[in-house]
Amino acid sequence: MGVDWIVVGAGFTGATFAERMATAGRRVLIVDRRAHIGGNAHDETNAHGILVHRYGPHIFHTNSEAVWRYLGKFTEWRAYEHHVLALIEGKLVPIPFNLDSLAALLSKKAAARIESALINQYGFGKRVPILKLRTSEQPDIRDFADYVYRNVFEGYTLKQWQLRPEELSASVTARVPISISRDARYFQDNFQAIPLHGYAEMFRRMLEHPNIAVALDYDWKRSMVKGRHTRVLFTGAIDEFLDYRFGPLPYRSIRFEERTLQKIQHQPVGTINYPNDYNFTRITEQKIITSQRAAVTTLITEFPRSHEPGRTIAYYPIPRDDNRLLYGKYAAAVKAEFPDVCFAGRLADYQYYDMDQACARALKLASELGGPARLEARP
Ligand code: FAD
Ligand code: UDP
Questions:
Q1: Angle of helix 199-207 relative to helix 12-23, nearest 10 degrees?
Q2: What's residue 230's pLDDT?
Q3: What is the mean pLDDT of the chain?
Q4: Does residue 156's CB lie within 6 angstroms of at least one atom of ligand 2?
Q5: DSSP character for 37?
Q6: Cα 315 to ligand 1 centroid, rounded to whole Å
Q7: Residue 139 Cα, ligand 1 centroid: separation in angstroms?
Q8: Which contiguous run of DSSP H or E holds residue 29?
Q9: HSE of 196 in the Cβ direction (CA atoms, 13 Å)?
């Protein structure tokens, strides 16, 4: 069939864009090299009957009412606020590191002294990135910041990125700031939830549209553009698109290890981080996130690893200035050589997007390219 748009990649970016354009009356072919839609947010039931997030645990959180309402057209939600503990000096303490983490690790006297120094300096309820805290002029706060840096951030970041926190964009560790409060939630966003029937079902409903055709196990080749008057949205890796012409963009990958235990619940919270011990970063108990009831429970352990194009999946762009410069070369080249191809998404923009940011990016792009001006009311 003739189509108006080919969308490469059926993750949050591609599926949102395809749905918007289809709703505006365009005919869309969406392809993915994987055997399923949903990209890295895909979930499926494992052999033990537990719903697992196949590419690592995914917790939806956003401050964007537009994204929340948009996705709400395709799913009901189950409210879920994520909690994380980290094993530090043999104790499990809340992450983001907060006043209760402080009290759990330091003597009563030292904790009280640092707590009042933090509150005086920044104010109760404030959230301060670790790299900023380390620049404090107050010796007490600086010593405390060094302690948190060493015990929470340094080892975890080395495992995850093979880099120290200061070798990455400051925005990376700022995702998990020190919290001068007793709020132990991992995210602070206004909307925090998990799709009631799972991500895969939400994506199925997004792409269930008479103007959308889906082709899976379909590795897209650039040559498809040639000779056709079809526009393309590419949501895969921009360096791969140009056959790594300027050298590969660096990414981190992860090996996920899944194990199922014959018990109802294993961990006190959804995720436990291991900043200092072992060669994995964290273990997540899937059932806690999805609120599934079952007699067994499945744990997912994340082992960060280097990315080898063609062999592993590029999960994380590595936010650093030099990588941004290299990305800029790719962005300039595709703009000059492929004016009919748009690039968007975590890989195509080489940006550390969360799901809501990928969705927001696609909503904006669709509205700029002739998608519906506003969100239709729910039927
Ligand atoms: P993707 O989901 O990567 O989709 C891109 C798709 O394009 C893929 O399906 C791929 O197969 C396809 N593709 C690429 N190249 C080709 C080609 N040549 N031909 C055909 N198909 C192709 N976000 C949150 O908000 N909360 C979380 O808790 C969270 N946890 C995460 C945990 C992990 C371990 C990871 C890696 C990410 C997590 N994220 C989380 C981020 C989230 O996964 C992304 O924001 C989101 O998936 C980005 O969507 P996307 O469509 O841009 O990319
Ligand atoms: N981080 C850390 N220790 C922790 C939690 C996070 O050092 O206990 C740092 C680490 O560099 C990590 C980054 O903060 O990669 C962002 O953490 P987040 O949980 O947002 O990562 P994601 O869920 O995207 O993998």
A1: 30
A2: 82
A3: 96
A4: yes
A5: S
A6: 7
A7: 42
A8: strand 28-31
A9: 9
